[in-house]
């Protein structure tokens, strides 16, 4: 008995068992599909489609194994499947076609399709065509197959059951402990970084005095003031540069002469530090005015008058002259 007639007998037996009137239509469809003409290529190739089950419940899965056996020198175009075979059969998964060489010399190609259906009744797996040697006239088809999809049986006379209580999901202590540990580590790093930053804010960097030159501070300052005068910066519209260099000379002199870190201080801080060095008030007042004039010229784009520029230079020179210490006086202080 051929495979077509075997399938036909399966349909009839299942139809009788399930007493479905629609079986007649399915049988008619099956008989129509068996009329597909296969090519006269049987001497060089064989095609086969096999189901691992012919009866499943709705939504269950069934395996469809496709295989082609070829002789040497014969090539086959493997069919490409979409997501469905028919409107009632969906392809859940498919394997990559593999090749096996038999000891007798033939080559066997195989692919498995995993099928499912959400319709009930008889469902026909149609004939699948294979074309050989790139010739559309050399075609062979598998036999159509039938799957009977049955619905889940329902006990119509059974008592109505209560709805089941929802399942309690077990508490995952390991998962939450890990999350808590990560949060604590992050918070610790943030708090530690904040405390370190606050500590840095409260403890400013210690200012280290530069080493004093071997020459007296006033000699260096007076030489630099004379060099500045020779440059004639403010006379050449370089007022800002003039006051930058003038105040740097005086600040450096104060630093070397009075051990005050004047290069790192503001004007008010310099005057407050010099006020402790027993310098007369008039000299400090004139120095303050000169430094404030310089700040306006450097940072506020103030344009002093020519006489103000000259007065600032004279104030700086007089400050050095009034506060200088001669080398002889240094020796006398050391002896005292």
Overall description:
The chain has 336 residues and is an alpha+beta fold. It folds into 2 domains: 3-150, Immunoglobulin-like (Sandwich), CATH 2.60.40; 217-335, no CATH class. Helix content is 43%, strand content 20%. It has helices spanning 3-18, 23-33, 173-202, 217-231, 239-258, 267-274, 281-299, 306-323, 327-335, and strands spanning 45-51, 55-57, 61-70, 76-77, 84-86, 89-94, 98-101, 107-116, 121-125, 129-132, 135-141, 145-150. Strands 1, 3, 5, 6, 7 and 8 form a 6-stranded antiparallel sheet that branches. Strands 2-12-9 form a 3-stranded mixed sheet, covered by helices on one side. Helix 4 (217-231) packs antiparallel against helix 5 (239-258) and helix 6 packs antiparallel against helix 7. The longest helix has 30 residues, at 173-202. The radius of gyration is 52 Å and the shape is elongated. The model is unreliable at 31-40 and 329-336 (pLDDT under 50).
Record keyword descriptors for this entry.
single chain, disordered C terminus, 9 helices, Immunoglobulin-like, about 325 residues, three-stranded mixed sheet, six-stranded antiparallel sheet, alpha+beta
Unreliable residue stretches: 31-40, 329-336
Order of helices and strands: HHEEEEEEEEEEEEHHHHHHH
Give the second-level CATH assignment, the architecture of the largest domain.
Answer: Sandwich
Tell the overall outline: elongated
Describe the secondary-structure layout.
Elements: H1 3-18, H2 23-33, E1 45-51, E2 55-57, E3 61-70, E4 76-77, E5 84-86, E6 89-94, E7 98-101, E8 107-116, E9 121-125, E10 129-132, E11 135-141, E12 145-150, H3 173-202, H4 217-231, H5 239-258, H6 267-274, H7 281-299, H8 306-323, H9 327-335
Parallel strand pairs: 2-12
Antiparallel strand pairs: 1-3, 3-8, 4-10, 5-6, 6-8, 7-8, 9-12, 10-11
Helix pairs in contact: 1-2, 4-5, 4-8, 5-7, 5-8, 6-7, 7-8
């Amino acid at each position: 008995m051929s495979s077509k007639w075997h399938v036909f007998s399966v349909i009839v037996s299942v139809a009788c068992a399930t007493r479905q009137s629609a079986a007649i239509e399915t049988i008619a469809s099956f008989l129509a599909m068996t009329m597909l003409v296969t090519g006269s290529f049987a001497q060089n190739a064989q095609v086969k489609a096999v189901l691992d089950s012919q009866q499943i419940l709705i939504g269950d899965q069934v395996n469809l194994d496709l295989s082609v056996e070829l002789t040497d020198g014969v090539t086959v175009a493997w069919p490409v499947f979409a997501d469905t075979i028919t409107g009632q059969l969906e392809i859940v998964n498919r394997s990559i076609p593999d090749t096996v060489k038999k000891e007798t010399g033939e080559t066997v190609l195989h692919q498995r399709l995993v099928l499912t259906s959400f319709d009930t009744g008889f469902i026909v797996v149609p004939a699948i065509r294979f074309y050989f040697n790139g010739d559309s006239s050399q075609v062979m088809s598998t036999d159509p197959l039938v799957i009977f999809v049955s619905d889940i049986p329902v006990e119509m006379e059974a008592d109505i059951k209560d709805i089941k209580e929802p399942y309690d999901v077990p508490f995952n202590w390991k998962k939450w402990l890990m999350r808590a540990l990560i949060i604590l580590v992050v918070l610790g790093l943030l708090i530690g970084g904040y405390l370190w930053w606050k500590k840095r804010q409260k403890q400013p960097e210690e200012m280290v005095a530069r080493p004093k030159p071997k020459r007296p501070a006033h000699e260096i300052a007076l030489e630099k003031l004379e060099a500045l005068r020779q440059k004639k910066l403010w006379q050449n519209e370089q007022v800002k540069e003039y006051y930058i260099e003038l105040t740097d000379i005086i600040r450096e002199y104060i630093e070397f002469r009075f051990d005050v870190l004047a290069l790192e201080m503001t004007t008010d801080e310099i005057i407050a530090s010099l006020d402790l060095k027993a310098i007369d008030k008039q000299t400090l007042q004139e120095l303050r005015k000169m430094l404030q004039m310089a700040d306006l010229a450097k940072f506020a784009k103030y344009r002093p008058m020519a006489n103000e520029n000259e007065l600032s230079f004279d104030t700086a020179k007089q400050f050095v002259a009034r506060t200088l210490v001669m080398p002889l006086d240094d020796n006398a202080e050391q002896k005292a």
